[in-house]
Structures are given as C-alpha cells and as structure tokens.
Amino acid sequence: MELVLQNLDFLLKGAYYTLLITMVSMFFGFILALILAFARLKGSLVVRNIAMFYVSVFRGTPILVQIFIIYYGLPDYGIRFGPLTAAILSLSLNIGAFLSETFRGAILSVSKGQTEAAMSLGLTSWQTTYKVILPQAARVAIPPMGNTFIGMLKETSLVSIVTVTELLRTAQLLIAQYYIAMPFYIAIAVMYWVMSLLFSYLLTRVEKKLSKAY
C-alpha cells in the first residue's frame, strides 16, 4: 500500500473528477427528468409519445453503448465532443430517462384531491404544481432518486473508456506504471464506497427533513 500513499494525490484528483461528473450529470439529468415527467403527464399526445420513446430508448440500451455512440459515433456526422463533455452528456441523458419515471410515479402518488383543493382555493395550475404537488412528490421521490444517484456515481467508471481521467482511469494509469494492480483497485473500491456512504447519509438527512411535516 506504500505505492497507494505515494500516489494518493493523483487518486484524489481522479476522485474529484468522478464527483464533478456525477454532480454535473445529476444536475442536468434532474432538469431533463422533470421535463420528461411533465411531458408524459401533461403534454399532448405527440409530446407524450416522444417522451415515452426517449425514455424507452435510454432505459432499454446499455449506457456503455450510449457513451460509444456520443463519443465515437457522432463524429461520423461532424458532431464532436471532448471526452469530459461526452461523458457528462451521456450520463445526463441516461439518468434523465431513469429519473423521469421516478418523478412521474411520485407525482402520480399525490392524491387528486390535493389538486382539486388547491384549485378551489384559487391557485393557478402552476401554483398548484409548485406549492402543493411537487413538495409532496419530492418526499416520495427522494429514496429511489438516491439509489439512482449512487448507481450513477459507480457508473462514472465507464467513462474511462473515452480517456476521462476519473477514479478508475487514474488507477489504470498507475497500474500501467508500476505493474501491480491489487493495491490500486482496493484503494479506488474504498474511495467509491466512502463516497457512496457520504451520499447515502446526505440523502437520508434530506429525506428526514422533508418528512417532518408528515
């Protein structure tokens, strides 16, 4: 493990990029998921079908294939992205499809009586959604969203195939340098585990805070 300690700063840099990719992808995926969820719930027939098709494609194909298409396939048509951009774009599009189903289910779990009561008080459709439906839906969506978030944290290891120097890629570079594998693989496994525990703790705190009113 002496080699791990000697190269800890390099591994931590890889962990930083893993967290960066995860957070940015989650942010854009979250926004995309809300758009898809409302498109399926309140959109016209054409909009609903487009959203359903998108979700079906991205949930039904491996994320590794999606990364390959975006980074290696799109350049055939003159569309090029840098490794980091391609990684974030791939993960955002994928996580948006999965989260949209979580959000849609959470919104549907809110009783229709809540909407009727809000409308009877004079709230607009937007005010009803923002002030009544979404706060209650968020409480339901947090646990599955947390599982999806942690899953994506681990899936960032797949972006190493497009030469993004995240945590797994840093370990691979060190293994190629020292010709020894186990200490570095153990080190990054521990780092992924610690980050997962941290996110689980934070999401649990958020869930408890949202549940106080209930």
From TrEMBL:
* Keywords from the named record: Amino-acid transport, Cell membrane, Membrane, Transmembrane, Transmembrane helix, Transport
UniProt subcellular location: Cell membrane
Xref: SUPFAM superfamilies: MetI-like
Q: Which InterPro entries match?
A: AA_ABC_transptr_permease_3TM, ArtM/GltK/GlnP/TcyL/YhdX-like, MetI-like, MetI-like_sf
Q: Which positions, given as ranges, span the membrane?
A: 15-39, 51-74, 80-99, 184-204
Start and end residues of each ABC transmembrane type-1 domain: 15-203
Primary location: membrane
Which Gene3D superfamilies does UniProt cross-reference here?
MetI-like (1.10.3720.10)
Q: How does it sit in the membrane?
A: Multi-pass membrane protein
NCBIfam families cross-referenced by the UniProt entry? HEQRo_perm_3TM
Protein family membership: Belongs to the binding-protein-dependent transport system permease family.
What name does this protein carry?
Answer: ABC transporter permease subunit
User: In which organism is this protein found?
Assistant: Paenibacillus planticolens
